[in-house]
Design a protein that fits this description.
This protein is an alpha/beta fold. The strands form three sheets. It has an eight-stranded mixed β-sheet, sandwiched between helices. Helix 22 links the parallel strand 21 and strand 22. Helix 6 runs parallel beside helix 11. The longest helix has 42 residues.
């Protein structure tokens, strides 16, 4: 018996011997061996096995429990620094202090910083996880399964259990590990498992059952989850689901481990850069204060506080908040983000490669004409009748043209034709032959093969043609006339298929590609898929936003040109797949840059074109929905598919569009750029501010006889500044920023810090001078007033920099921040001004500032803004960029 049903849930592991036994079991015993029937499992048995084996899901990074996430929010290097400071403060201010001198202020303030930082991070990550989970549920993969008492129908892959009967056709992902029991020209790509790009034929009956030394992936009658059907049809029995599959064992070993993207690496570089500055500055601050003040313990605590002020502890939270908000906003615009980090590539994309059908066109193909070989209308419907048999009897993936034929026949009420014929065999479609055949037999036993496909490929297998009911040899002159007729219809934007047949066959079964020869050409089918009204506008807007659109299609050159021309794409430079194949490597690179129109491409040529564009330093997106697009989706920087796509296309994509429309995509591109822009804002604000503060602290430590601020002042100032940054994800971006693709540039960050950071130091030093000479804060008795003055000025200048850096324009006048940012920064500035006047301020060693201080403060802040704006214009003129 294959399974021994137990009441307790079984945790299955991949077992090569079990797979070998499944492969060796004779075909006449497989249903018994797998404890199922040819009709499938009953609902009761499905429920029982579902409870036993669980859902058909491979291991993935599980959503963490709230308590675990909250605990992990405390685990990061920045919180560790704060925790050390709390411990030191407890020892010095409470444990070693006498009862009347015990002071809990620093401990309470720093502990508040730790808890508040953790709560903010937890809230953002919890919301991001919940949002990501909800978005993922909007995209599901399905399969066709047969269950007892029901017709074969579409079910979610997750619902499959061992013993289920699954039907496969071209374009399907293999939903579980299967033993094949029926197959017809079944070719499967196992590249996702083995890396081998060549498709492998799978068959139901194998002659050699000696598998000694063979890998399980080489078994001819076994299909594994994660591979995909390239062509043909099959029926299989599920024998492995979820983590017990071959793919599941691989997934378990890598679950939770994701390769770092360019975006991840950029964020890491920023963090390491700031931490390196901190590690360089803190020892210097410690030594300078220890030498000049003589109190080494106080100098140490101050240095630790400076370290806290220089660490970007909110960076993870801000990045997570921006990405999750971007994903949510994009979902409202019918764009589902499978991987949050793909948003960066979305904003950076400068070339979009797209297929034609359904993207540039309405995806509503109609059969416009069915004509005889000589171009006359098929008034007797003979051509239509043969086309109907071909589309009706095929069991593979019915494409839009098949549906158009069936729909047209239904309108003419000719569906009863199928009752007079029965299907004998089928030769499924594949992307090399670009045609498919069915073999039918009428009530009199007359057997014929009917083939339809791309015109050029069909002419290659036709030796004869039918004119006015007479079969004659297909001469070269007639071939030229046929190609001219097809070209004329193509030029009108119609996709043309040729139709051929061969009668009185002596063969009874097991028809193959070799039988598609010496065919009789009988006519043509012309389909029309009009351009979308929105396509031209969408392409125009994508161009305006710096995204070049290239069409990569397997369709006829004339059709692709006609449709592309109608939607506003320049068709002057175009090339076909066969022409492209003959070029040298250097010429191919030149051609992909030059051309916008690529037609008659094979799936691998699409992937090659994308690879060549990437080699030319482009960020390339690819929009596709077919099995022939899977390789290109994987090769691209950002794979984009649609919810109605075949499973392998959705699995290969980073972004899923709920509407196959370039307008939806254009909205997604803009949202991706907004998200990326807001992250860059925070990074540049934090980096430049921290860089400037280093010089301020160093100057004060060297020349003042007392600390410029107490450790607790630095911590509270840092806490308030961090809170002011939490609204950055809700800020707007200037329209000019959204016009161009944006890429991560670590080098620009260093340059930005060196230019902008020292500005704050200049005005910090001006504040020192004012407090020293104007307010005569020159000794220990007035150090609290000095510290209060710098506390307020430092906080307000740090908060104002948000508005100065967020735009390349004049802030408040030419470009205003969003209301959440304005309200939060104003609130933090007001709180900072008020703290010295409150009992809390007195408790932490601050003193009320005289009214005469505030005109100086206003003058310093205005001068700070003016100098920053002037330097901003210089920076932009020199480096041609800001954010």
């Amino acid at each position: 018996m294959m399974w021994n049903i137990k009441k307790t849930r079984v945790q299955m592991a991949f077992n090569a011997d079990r797979v070998m036994m499944a492969a060796k079991t004779p075909l006449d015993q497989v249903f018994t061996y797998f404890q199922t029937t040819s009709s499938g499992l009953t609902d009761e048995e499905v429920e029982k096995r579902l409870s036993l084996y669980g859902k058909n899901e491979v291991a993935h990074e599980k959503n963490k429990k709230p308590l675990v996430m909250f605990a992990q929010a405390f685990i990061n290097p920045f919180v560790s620094v704060l925790t050390v400071l709390v411990a030191i403060s407890f020892v010095m201010d409470v444990w070693l202090a006498s009862p009347e001198e015990q002071d809990w202020t620093s401990i309470v303030v720093v502990s508040t910083m730790i808890v508040l930082s953790a709560i903010l991070r937890f809230c953002q990550e919890w919301k991001a996880n919940r949002s990501s989970e909800a978005l993922q549920k909007m995209v599901t993969n399905t399969c066709y399964a047969k269950r007892a008492g029901c017709r074969a129908g579409e079910i979610s892959n997750e619902e499959l259990v061992p013993g289920d009967i699954v039907m496969l056709s071209a374009g399907d992902m293999i939903p579980a590990d299967l033993r094949i029991v029926e197959s017809k020209d079944l070719f499967v790509s196992q590249s996702s498992l083995t890396g081998e790009s060549v498709s492998i034929e799978k068959i139901a009956v194998i002659s050699n059952t000696d598998f000694a030394g063979n890998s399980v992936v080489d078994l001819d009658n076994i299909c594994f989850m994660g591979s995909n059907v390239v062509s043909g049809t099959a029926k299989g029995i599920v024998f492995g689901t979820g983590n017990s599959t071959y793919m599941g064992t691989i997934a378990k070993s890598v679950a939770g481990h994701r390769a770092a993207t360019a975006f991840d690496k950029g964020i890491t570089k920023v963090s390491l850069l700031l931490i390196r500055f901190m590690l360089f500055m803190v020892p210097i601050v410690f030594l300078v204060n220890g030498i000049t003040k003589g109190d080494w313990l106080e100098a140490f605590i101050f240095a630790i506080s400076v370290a806290v002020g220089l660490t970007p502890e909110m960076l993870p939270m801000i990045v997570t908040a921006n990405l999750s908000k971007g994903a949510l906003m994009m979902s409202r615009k019918k764009t589902i983000v499978k991987d949050l980090n793909a948003i960066q590539n979305f904003g950076a994309m400068n070339i979009l490669c797209t297929d034609k059908t359904g993207t540039l066109t309405q995806d509503n193909i109609v059969l416009e004409r069915h004509v005889n070989v000589d171009g006359t209308e098929d008034k007797g419907n003979r051509v239509l009748r043969h086309a109907y048999f071909n589309s009706y009897f095929q069991t593979g993936l019915k494409n839009l043209m098949d549906r158009a034929i069936l729909s047209h026949v239904k309108e003419l009420k000719m569906e009863s034709l199928s009752r007079s014929y029965k299907k004998v065999d089928e030769i499924p479609f594949d992307f090399q032959r670009r045609r498919m055949s069915v073999v039918v037999e009428d009530l009199n036993g007359k057997r014929q093969i009917i083939t339809k496909g791309a015109a050029e490929e069909m002419l290659d297998v036709c030796t004869y043609a039918e004119f006015e009911g007479q079969v004659c040899e297909l001469t070269e002159e007639m071939r030229n006339k046929a190609q001219h007729l097809v070209s004329e219809m193509n030029a009108q934007g119609m996709r043309v298929l040729a139709l051929a047949q061969k009668s009185f066959l002596s063969k009874e079964n097991n028809f193959a590609v070799a039988d598609e020869q010496d065919m009789v050409l009988i006519g043509y089918l012309a389909f029309l898929d009009p351009p979308k009204e929105s396509a031209a506008q969408a392409i125009k807007q994508l161009h305006e936003h710096g995204v070049e659109v290239k069409v990569l299609s397997g369709d006829n050159d004339a059709v692709v040109r006609a449709i592309s021309r109608q939607v506003g794409i320049n068709t002057a430079a175009a090339i076909t797949g066969p022409e492209f194949e003959l070029l040298s490597s250097d010429d191919k690179l030149k051609m992909v840059v030059k051309c916008n129109i690529f037609s008659k491409l094979t799936p691998m040529q699409k992937a090659e074109i994308i690879h060549l564009l990437q080699a030319d330093n482009n960020t390339v997106g690819f929009l596709g929905d077919g099995i022939n697009d899977a390789a290109a989706l994987r090769e691209s920087d950002i794979g984009i598919s649609v919810d109605s796509a075949v499973d392998i296309a959705k699995e290969s994509a980073d972004i899923i569009l709920l509407e196959k429309d370039l307008m939806v995509l254009e909205n997604g591109v803009l949202e991706g750029r907004k998200t990326f822009g807001n992250i860059v804002k925070y990074v540049k604000m934090t980096a430049s501010s921290n860089f400037g503060n280093m010089f301020s602290v160093l100057a004060a430590s060297a020349f003042l006889p007392f600390l410029p601020m107490l450790p607790v002042h630095l911590l509270i100032q840092n806490l308030l500044y961090d809170i002011s940054q939490t609204t950055i994800p809700f800020d707007r971006m200037d329209n000019e920023y959204l016009q161009k693709p944006r890429v991560w540039d670590s080098g620009d960050l260093s340059r930005f810090m060196i230019w902008i950071g020292p500005i704050s130091s200049i005005f910090d030093i001006v504040t020192y001078v004012v407090m020293w000479w104007v307010f005569e804060c020159q000794g220990p008795e007035t150090e609290t007033l000095f510290q209060s003055g710098w506390f307020v000025e430092g906080l307000l200048s740090q908060t104002l920099i948000v508005h100065m850096i967020r735009t390349r324009k004049i802030p408040f006048v030419q470009s205003a921040a969003s209301w959440p940012v304005i309200l939060m920064t104003c609130a933090i500035m007001a709180i900072g001004i008020c703290i010295p006047f409150t009992p809390f301020g007195s408790a932490i060693g601050l003193t009320p500032l005289p009214l005469s201080y505030f005109p100086w403060l206003i003058g310093i802040l205005l001068s700070y803004c003016v100098l920053t704006q002037w330097l901003k214009t210089k920076y932009i003129s020199v480096f041609k960029r800001w954010l």
